Amino acid sequence: MTTTAVFRCFGTGDPLMEAYHDDEWGRPVHDEAALFERIALEGFQSGLSWAIVLRKRPGFRAAFAGFDPVAVARFGDDDVTRLLADPGIVRNRLKIDATLRNARALVALHEQGRTLDEVLWSHRPDLPRPRPATWADVPSTSSESVALARELKSLGFRFVGPTTAYASMQACGVVDDHLVGCSAVRDAG
User: Fold this and answer.
1) Model pTM?
2) Residue of 20, 25, 121, 166 marked active site
3) What mean pLDDT comes out for the span 154-181?
4) Cα separation of 160 and 186, whole Å?
5) Is 166 a residue of the active site?
6) Residue in 25, 32, 37, 42 annotated catalytic
């Protein structure tokens, strides 16, 4: 019996990162709470490794009411105090405040009859790019992520600059930056 080696463009050797790579990153997401979670976690990741945030993901989900934007939008000063004391998350006041503001912005967006799904996916690149061969070929921003960041900020979102917007686009499958030869590319068809 012959086994074929699996090539992952990241995460090999860390079961949590392998599962994230294989099952989530670059896969389309359309659920509002899931999109809110991805944007929030990408904001918390800023300046840190993704592995740290991914390991704390269960804590984030518990602390932020499963990323239910309506529930998080109702968080007040007592919740901020609770979150700042919670070792299960990244305890950064600016990132916590941004997540609460983003939940309120998302609720306001829904009240206007719009969705985060619509906003995010409207910034999908019009033309497919060549699949990157190396990480050096993967941009940290794009013209689409600059436009997405601008729109999100105009809607009241915070901590969503072009780099965080691009990482969110990757996390939600708006762009797929799996490298050439990656097992996720073969699986995706």
Assistant:
1) 0.93
2) 20
3) 97
4) 31
5) no
6) 42
